[in-house]
């Protein structure tokens, strides 16, 4: 069977992403037609996002700096595209949650619980996936040209020369939670732009979460 070279390339470079996308699409197609189009899309997104999140964190927990360097070189061409796609997917999921919560008010109490569970799972996985994707991108920026860059893209306390994924996760999740960079200094203009982008997206995300939480709380009390 003929397989386009571009697909072969991405399978070699991004097997976890392609497996996750395939699982999400398959889930969407197999869901019963009784569900609305939006619900099928949200469930498919949940399968894709949770699976990809598990793949990424398994990779992050076992990778050494040498392994991270190899991944950065292998995935150099597609790094920015994947970050953009994940960011767009997470933001679109927020819009879908708003629509889903709107329909939840018009259903029975038993179905309302299912609606709220689906929106809650979508919200949690989207929030977790976004800083995780930025974690991978910060690691890519740090290691793609070697750790001898001057200045270093990120400067960790103690002048850590070979940070692991968990070090980058510390930086990324601090921005996601507190909208600040803590004790890690940004040393390169390109990384400064990425940090600004994550800060803006995280602020919007957190404000939407606050608004949705108030909405859901009011709906449960009514």
UniProtKB/TrEMBL annotation:
Keywords tagged on the record: Membrane, Transmembrane, Transmembrane helix
InterPro entries: DUF1345
Top-level taxon of origin: Bacteria
TM helices/strands, residue ranges: 17-35, 41-61, 82-102, 114-135, 200-221
Protein name: DUF1345 domain-containing protein
Taxonomic path: Bacteria, Pseudomonadati, Pseudomonadota, Gammaproteobacteria, Enterobacterales
């Amino acid at each position: 069977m003929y397989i386009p070279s571009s697909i072969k390339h991405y399978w070699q470079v991004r097997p976890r992403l392609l497996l996750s996308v395939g699982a999400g699409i398959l889930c969407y197609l197999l869901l019963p037609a009784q569900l609305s189009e939006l619900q099928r899309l949200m469930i498919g997104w949940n399968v894709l996002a949770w699976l990809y999140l598990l793949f990424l964190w398994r990779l992050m927990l076992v990778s050494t700096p040498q392994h991270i360097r190899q991944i950065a070189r292998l995935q150099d061409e597609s790094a920015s595209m994947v970050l953009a796609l994940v960011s767009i997917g997470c933001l679109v999921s927020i819009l879908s949650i708003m629509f889903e919560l709107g329909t939840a008010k018009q259903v029975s109490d038993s179905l309302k619980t299912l609606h709220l569970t689906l929106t809650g799972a979508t919200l949690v996985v989207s929030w977790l996936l976004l800083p995780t994707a930025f974690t991978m991108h910060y690691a890519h920026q740090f290691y793609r040209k070697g750790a001898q860059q001057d200045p270093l893209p990120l400067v960790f306390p103690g002048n850590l020369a070979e940070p692991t994924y968990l070090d980058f996760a510390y930086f990324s999740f601090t921005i996601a939670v507190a909208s600040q960079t803590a004790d890690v200094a940004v040393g390169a203009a390109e990384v400064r732009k990425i940090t600004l982008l994550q800060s803006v997206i995280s602020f919007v995300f957190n404000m939407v979460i606050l608004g949705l939480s108030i909405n859901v709380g009011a709906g449960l009390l009514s």
